[in-house]
Design a protein that fits this description.
The chain is α/β, with parallel strands linked by helices and about 950 residues long. The protein is built from 31 helices and 17 strands. It has 3 domains: about 550 residues, ABC transporter type 1, transmembrane domain (ABC transporter transmembrane region fold, Up-down Bundle); about 260 residues, P-loop containing nucleotide triphosphate hydrolases (Rossmann fold), CATH 3.40.50.300; about 90 residues, Rossmann fold.
């Protein structure tokens, strides 16, 4: 027996190793497929489909875990069949038929409960998508939320969506409780049926039959419990599989603009479109007719109001040129809204192309970025985790520089100068877009609402009128003025190229500061995973978030349920020693009552655990996380990527709602089982304390060693997974840009590299539990042999031996389950640590987010604003954006603040709203220094600006 158990433990662990290898490969392929699909979708945002962030973080994790349970789909049914075979051999045919009939009626009821659970699982995933979509939009618009003090509005909207999500968990609890009762109560019901038939037929129940049957029923119970968990998992797998299939089957061709052009004939240096008809699928045409000619060395300006189809026209031209089989023209595209990806400014300009120092310096000069790089501490190495770190004009010019650096043949520019001030705009037209600019020998198609500077330099001009694109001939300055408002621009002194200082390109680009910089970038510092503080386990965060009476009530119900099971087994032990038929009947009746009590207690335990522990804890942790994120200063969002923040609300919250709950329930049940087993053994055989306590201590030491490595691997896994989520988001929002620049394949290769980094942590993380499991299995074998040897050496009745060994033989499965669920719990506990670290708020900021806590006065009462020698920076470590600014605005005055892009205009307003770090001076509003005003009043101020 010892040899067979050892061989079984070793073979089982090797099987688990290969399964984990397959699961990691599967998740890698699934993540790559989702990223490729996000890049392959069309030119508009898909609606109605699953959110790719949820698919990449939640659904892929569910499918990854399902790979580990592939053998369970056949091994558990096989085990059940073997146990039934043993019962058929042990019991008379009448008793076995009764057992079989009970099984036939029990499992259809379980199937109905599983079907009900699947419905709520699908609804829960849909509600999760709905909530994630709102959070993703809020992260991208966080600057507006902060400036307008909309934190309370957003928090309320998220709370409503979260409430709908948690309602599905409550409804799922009813089905889950019923399923647990069926699976837990099945062995007791089968025992009652079998022994009842035996007593009815007048057969004797001895220790050999009773305890052998009980042991078979116990092993059957374990398999049925695992089978119930597997059926629940399969429902989640089915829902996630359907969601992934829905996303991967989204159409890729019919969502791009339809461009009908019967003729595109023209000279080799010209692209000509005639009889244009442009529309989106299933919508009325935006352009019903028109002709457009693009010379390959000309500036074409297309003018029109908002919503007439300017952006659609550019996309249509882009797709038409990309479909050219000859691939004669390379295209660069600048979208209407400046789009930056994670990385440095230089990464956003070279955009995956080889670095050419001379070309790079020329481009940044033409786009007027050299002065901005001098003002940035890290120059063009400044990391970008979101456009809020730069002004709108700087983002627009970086996008222009990206297009220019690509050295394309045709440039499609969607209102590229709308966010740039007039002086810088004039320089860009002269240096870059005009007849003497850097792109003078390229085709430039610019769509704009109104830009007199571009119209004055245009070689051909078109305008939208009543859905048609008409050519406009500009013969005089007056016609230019008719098409655009007059802009009075002071003359800009353009330096003579020959007199420009010959500065090495690298010096101009990098602009190393005088002070030394740390080796770790700002982004990397922000991405460092929070570690556990102090000695308190993260589980306390979850425990304290539940209702105060929830845990004692739930644990009490579980103890009563397990206690009823132990007492029922002890009653059967007494039954084997009874000689009187009446006493046997009474013992059997007591066993029936205890079995019914066991089922009722388990049902109440699941309901109470969900109602008073799971749902309140999940709600409180999510609300605290929303409040904590919204209370962060704006520099937090400038240093931490949107993917990292979204990862908290998808992967981490998903673990709180899902796997953490099942782990808590399972761990409670397994530890109660282990405790009762040790108490039964010690109570029956006191000498067993000599080997029980050392084995328990040894198991505890093993777990401590194991948990240390597990936590570190979990942190590495989380840190390496955040870039994957960022890539998925960028693929979804920037796919048109990547497609226009021909970078789809390059982005896929970069994603593969990030994926490999994640897999280097994920694979050992998924295998580390095998190290502990094989050792615990060997310990359980020693425990069983020690218990059996101690009882054989003592004069103990056979009924007592059978009673004790019934529980002792469950130790192997119990310790294996403890190892499995502890590993999963510690993995999920990292999510608790992360959520707790981001959820810390002050009382004032929490009141601001909740929209409560007014100080009772109407401030400000006067529109008086005064800056007194104000200096400020965006975040610690960066140079000052404002230096000793002083001015005074009286009530009713209208003040104009003029400055070039990046001069500090937006910073001045941000400082007024307390969104920047003020290092010196005072800002007085209605005579009060805003540094001394409580955040509630500042929130009221933000709402009035």
């Amino acid at each position: 027996m010892f040899a067979s158990r050892v061989i079984g433990a070793i073979c089982g662990n090797y099987s688990g190793y290969y399964l984990r290898k397959i699961a990691v490969q599967y998740k890698s392929a699934l993540s790559a497929s989702l990223h490729a699909k996000a890049l392959a979708l069309g030119d508009v945002k898909t609606t109605g489909g699953p959110d790719v962030a949820t698919l990449g973080e939640v659904d892929s994790q569910i499918l990854f875990k399902s790979c580990l349970e592939i053998p369970d789909a056949w091994s558990y049914p096989l085990q059940i069949l073997l146990y039934y075979g043993g019962l058929a051999y042990l019991l008379p045919w009448q008793a076995f038929v009764a057992v079989a009939l009970i099984t036939v009626f029990l499992y259809p009821a379980g199937g109905l409960l599983v079907e009900a659970m699947s419905v709520w699982v699908k609804k829960n995933m849909g509600a999760k998508d709905y909530r994630t979509e709102l959070i993703s939009e809020a992260i991208s618009s966080i600057e507006s939320i902060k400036m307008h003090a909309w934190e309370s509005v957003f928090s309320s909207s998220v709370a409503q969506r979260r409430l709908a999500e948690l309602d599905t968990l409550r409804n799922m609890a009813v089905s889950s409780a019923g399923l647990v009762c069926v699976m837990q109560g099945a062995p007791s019901i089968l025992t009652i049926a079998a022994f009842g038939v035996l007593l009815r037929t007048g057969q004797q129940l001895d220790s050999q039959i009773v305890f052998t049957a009980i042991m078979l029923f116990s092993m059957l119970n374990a398999s049925l419990i695992q089978l119930s968990a597997l059926t629940s998992t399969l429902q989640s797998v089915a829902a996630s599989t359907e969601r992934v299939k829905t996303y991967l089957n989204l159409p890729e061709t019919m969502i791009s603009p339809i461009f009908e052009s019967p003729s595109s004939a023209g000279p080799e240096d010209q692209i000509c479109f005639e009889k244009m008809r442009i529309s989106w699928p299933d919508e009325a045409p935006l352009i019903t007719d028109g002709k457009l000619s693009i010379d390959l060395r000309s500036l074409v300006v297309v003018q029109g109001g908002m919503g007439v189809g300017k952006s659609t026209l550019l996309l249509s031209i882009l797709r038409h040129i990309q479909q050219d089989e000859m691939k004669r023209h390379r295209v660069a595209y600048v979208p209407q809204h400046p789009t930056l990806i994670n990385g440095s400014i230089r990464d956003n300009i070279i955009f995956g192309r080889p670095f050419d120092s001379e070309l790079y310096t020329t481009v940044i000069h033409a786009c007027c970025l050299d002065a901005d790089f001098q003002n940035l501490r890290q120059g063009d190495r400044t990391p970008i985790t979101g456009s809020i770190a730069l002004s709108g004009g700087q983002c627009a010019r970086i996008c222009l520089a990206r297009a220019t650096y690509s050295q394309a043949d045709i440039y499609l520019l969607d209102d590229p100068l709308s966010a740039v001030d007039a002086r810088v705009s004039a320089q860009i037209v002269r240096r870059l877009l005009g007849r003497t600019g850097l792109l003078a020998n390229k085709a430039r198609v610019v769509v704009t609402s109104a830009d007199g500077q571009l119209l004055g330099q245009a070689d051909s001009t078109y305008k939208f009128q009543c859905g048609k694109l008409l050519a406009v001939t500009l013969d005089s300055t007056s016609q230019v003025e008719e098409l655009s408002p007059v802009v009075d621009i002071a003359p800009v002194a353009e330096p003579i190229p020959s007199l420009l200082p010959k500065i090495p390109a690298v010096d101009v680009v990098e602009l190393h500061p005088k002070v030394s910089l740390p080796d770790v970038s700002i982004t990397q510092q922000a991405m460092l995973e929070p570690r556990r503080n102090g000695s308190r386990h993260p589980a306390w965060t979850y425990i304290l978030a539940a209702r105060s009476f929830g845990w004692p009530l739930s644990v009490g119900l579980l103890l009563m349920g397990r206690g009823s099971s132990v007492l029922g087994t002890y009653t059967l032990k007494l039954l084997t020693t009874e000689q009187d038929q009446v006493a046997v009947s009474w013992d059997m009746a007591i066993f029936v009552l205890l079995s019914i009590g066991q089922i009722i207690f388990f049902y109440l335990f699941i309901l109470a655990f969900y109602q008073f522990c799971i749902v309140p804890a999940a709600s409180k942790l999510h609300n605290n996380l929303v409040a904590g994120i919204l209370s962060k200063s704006i520099d937090f969002f400038q240093t931490v990527s949107g993917g990292e923040i979204l990862n908290l609300f998808t992967n981490d919250i998903g673990r709180i709602d899902g796997s953490l709950n099942s782990c808590m329930i399972s761990l409670l049940a397994q530890y109660v089982n282990l405790t009762l087993t040790c108490l039964v053994l010690i109570g029956t055989l006191p000498v067993s304390i000599l080997f029980v306590i050392p084995l328990v201590v040894f198991c505890s030491r093993l777990q401590q060693t194991y948990l240390g490595g597990l936590r570190e691997l979990r942190h590495l896994d989380v840190a390496s997974r955040s870039p994957l989520l960022t890539f998925l988001q960028e693929a979804q929002t920037n796919r048109v840009l990547f497609s226009a620049h021909g970078l789809v394949k390059a982005r896929q290769n970069q994603f593969q590299k990030k994926l490999q980094e994640n897999l280097s942590a994920l694979f050992p993380l998924s295998c580390i539990d095998l190290w502990l499991e094989v050792r615990l299995q060997l310990i359980s074998i020693v425990f069983q042999l020690s218990a059996l040897g101690a009882m054989m050496a003592s004069s103990i009745p056979l009924s007592t031996v059978g009673f004790v060994m019934t529980f002792a033989f469950q130790v192997t499965g119990t310790l294996s389950n403890v190892a499995q669920f502890t590993a999963q719990f510690e993995t999920d506990a990292v999510s608790l640590t992360r959520i707790d670290s981001y959820s810390r708020t002050t009382n004032s900021s929490e009141s601001r987010i909740n929209g409560s806590g007014s100080d009772g006065r109407n401030w400000p009462s006067l529109g008086t604003v005064e800056y007194k020698s104000v200096s400020a920076r965006h975040r610690p470590g960066l140079p000052l954006s404002l230096k000793s600014i002083s001015f005074h605005v009286k009530p009713g005055e209208k003040i104009a603040v003029v400055g070039r892009t990046g001069a500090g205009k937006s910073s001045m307003i941000s400082c007024l709203l307390r969104m920047m770090e003020q290092t010196e001076g005072q800002i007085l509003i209605a005579g009060d220094d805003i540094a001394d005003v409580d955040p509630i009043s500042c929130s009221n101020l933000s709402k009035q600006i």
